[in-house]
Amino acid sequence: MNQTLQILVVDDEVNIRKTLSVCLETEGHKVFGVSNFQDALDENLAPKESLPKIGDPLTLERIEDQHIRRILAATRSLQEAADILGVDQATLWRRRKKYEI
Fold this sequence. Notes:
Helix content: 40-55%
CATH superfamily of the largest domain: Response regulator
Oligomer: single chain
Shape: globular
Number of domains: 2
């Protein structure tokens, strides 16, 4: 049984948003489409804490850490999370250790 997700699609090309929305909705997911991130914030579709603060370094490690945490929260097993992330389960285990997840 697949989990229904709420997915935010942000792209300035309306055809891309529509195509992604149709594909994802066919899979049973609820899709919100906006042309830019500010619209997502204005419509309360994106968490404000996902934006970096002025002077807050946005590093690839921070992005990876947040992404792994979101995927782990949305999945039921490490193998499922590893599959979604496109990495081996051992790699995911090392990243969890690195980011103290």
